[in-house]
Amino acid sequence: MPVSAASPFYNQEHEDFRAQVRRFVEREIVPHIERWEAAEELPRELHRKAADAGLLQIGFPERAGGVEVPDLFYMIVLTEELARAGSGGLIASLMSHGIATPPICHTGSAEQIARFAAPVLAGEKIGALAITEPSGGSDVAALKTRAVRDGEHYLVNGSKTFITSGMRADYITCAVRTGGEGMGGISLLVIEAGTPGFSRSPLQKMGWWASDTASLYFQDCRVPVANRIGAENMGFMAIMMNFNQERIMLATQAWAFAKVCYEDSLIYARERQTFGKPLIRNQVIRHKLADMKMRLDAVKAHLDILAWRVSHKQMPVAEVCLLKNHACTALEWIANEAMQILGGAGYLRGSRVERIYRETKVLTIGGGSLEIMKDLAGKQMGY
Ligand SMILES: Cc1cc2nc3c(=O)[nH]c(=O)nc-3n(C[C@H](O)[C@H](O)[C@H](O)COP(=O)(O)OP(=O)(O)OC[C@H]3O[C@@H](n4cnc5c(N)ncnc54)[C@H](O)[C@@H]3O)c2cc1C
């Protein structure tokens, strides 16, 4: 039964889960987030604590130690609550298994699931997904990192870049070229930390500071054939299916952070006095807030309807691309307006709006850029 007439999509179980996540965020994240942002990485024990609180397993199959849920609204609630800490880096890194582990769960063998997925969902190990290369991220089918069969191993040579959780990851779900050119020559290998020939270096970023991001290097790196996920040269489809889920989650983040910006600027506009009256008593400020709310609600309606369709086994690829663009550009606009309302206070380090403003751009680039999303949507719609 819906709990609120305002939305047919959320019920009491979603709200119970929300309360559980909110307690975790307030106790385990909010008091520490500034320190983790400055350190530019999350402590490993946070993954264990989040698993103990049942947050990492949501939406994953039981056979991998996951908690199966009937719909994507649990993930939306989880993201909305995590976003209250005001750090996109926290979500990107704590939840990097959300892009690294699904291909293992969907196409991996029982043994691979037990070795590479279950410990990650238990918060004992960290997973990362490595697709992007220095030569480019948009054209996935052109990736160059090569894996050549040598008996029961692949010899991997090449490099990856911009990899979230790349410094701390124990298991890296890595796209490599095992065959000829194009999408038909790509496989997925799980490359383990400590494998000889594998090294990495950290990257410094404009935002998402709490998320460690790395370049990865493979030099005659010997990876067992047993670490290949799915059939040889069949990795591209697994990557594409993963992207759909990632794009919905990136759209959710964009909406959730836009909501934080709206809420913080509304509070500020009510409290801040200028020219002898609260800021919000100026029509121009009220119009900004009304426009922010209009965009926020439009994105949420768009998000909820597509989350419902995907939860009902539909695969609206074009619509998901457009949703990502809708949500991410709305965030850019809303974060900009929120900064303006906060004035100088918004420009100082330490406010949620300041951090979110710095983080907006990554969402229109990562997981499929604005331009690529439009192109893919257009192709899917037969343009
Ligand atoms: C903080 C951060 C974290 C990330 N985490 C990960 C991760 O965990 N794993 C991973 O694999 N990748 C990750 N990425 C990489 C991300 O997915 C890529 O940055 C993205 O796919 C774009 O690739 P690129 O940066 O190489 O840009 P390019 O592909 O070089 O494109 C550059 C620009 O040109 C545009 N462009 C490219 N081709 C066209 C075209 N045909 N028509 C019009 N415009 C075009 C793009 O839209 C973009 O604006 C991360 C990136 C960042 C910044």
From TrEMBL:
Q: InterPro entries from the entry?
A: Acyl-CoA_dehydrogenase, Acyl-CoA_DH_CS, Acyl-CoA_Oxase/DH_mid-dom, Acyl-CoA_Oxase/DH_mid-dom_sf, AcylCo_DH-like_C, AcylCo_DH/oxidase_C, AcylCoA_DH/ox_N, AcylCoA_DH/ox_N_sf
Cofactors needed by this protein, per the record, are: FAD
Q: Name one Pfam family in it.
A: Acyl-CoA_dh_M
**What biological process terms from GO does the record include?**
fatty acid beta-oxidation using acyl-CoA dehydrogenase
Which stretch is the leader sequence?
none
PROSITE patterns named in the record? ACYL_COA_DH_1
Recorded GO cellular component terms are: cytoplasm
Any idea where the Acyl-CoA dehydrogenase/oxidase N-terminal domain is?
12-124
Question: Where is each Acyl-CoA oxidase/dehydrogenase middle domain found?
Answer: 128-221
Q: Which domain of life is it from?
A: Bacteria
Q: Name one GO molecular function term.
A: flavin adenine dinucleotide binding
**SUPFAM superfamilies, per this entry?**
Acyl-CoA dehydrogenase C-terminal domain-like, Acyl-CoA dehydrogenase NM domain-like
Q: Which UniProt keywords apply?
A: FAD, Flavoprotein, Oxidoreductase
Q: Provide the Acyl-CoA dehydrogenase/oxidase C-terminal domain boundaries.
A: 233-381
Q: Which family is annotated?
A: Belongs to the acyl-CoA dehydrogenase family.
Q: What's this protein's name?
A: Acyl-CoA dehydrogenase
